[in-house]
Write a structure and sequence with these properties.
Helices cover 36% and strands 11% of the residues. By secondary structure, it is an alpha+beta fold.
Length: 174
Amino acid sequence: MRVLIVGLLVLALGVAGVSTYLIQRFSGEEKLDELNKQAKAKTFKVLVATKPIASGSKIILDVVAWQGWEEKSLNKKFIVVDDEKQQKKRLDQFIGSIARRDIMVGEPILAEKLFKRQGAGFMAGAIQEGMRAVSIKVTAATATSGFVFPGDSVDIILTHNKASEAVKKTRAKG
């Protein structure tokens, strides 16, 4: 019985000693900071709207900002930087662009929702509400001239000049 009690005491002292050693070795401010850094997920900066941006509005510094975003939540279409050096360079690429669609506050800005006036496909955001743009057929392949993209609403107008055809027929007979 005494051997059992002595064995349990030695075991308890051994566990206490190992525990004390481990606590001293892995505790402290610097160790906690190191563990926190390892536990934090890597974050990137994503360009988001800070104010509502209406379709056709110009993108200016006051309406966008960089916001931290966890790597696992990133979409490959987001405008992303991973350090402060890249922020100004990437921002300069998009400042002055026009919003193709409405962008809500806090919504990540996608490059496909923006266009530059000098680029192709800007017509949908360049004209004012209630106005129409007209494309005149040159050939079947170039009829839209890069102004219309999938998802754009367009009006199709078919015109006939019956009077002109009737005059041509009359002249041909007479």
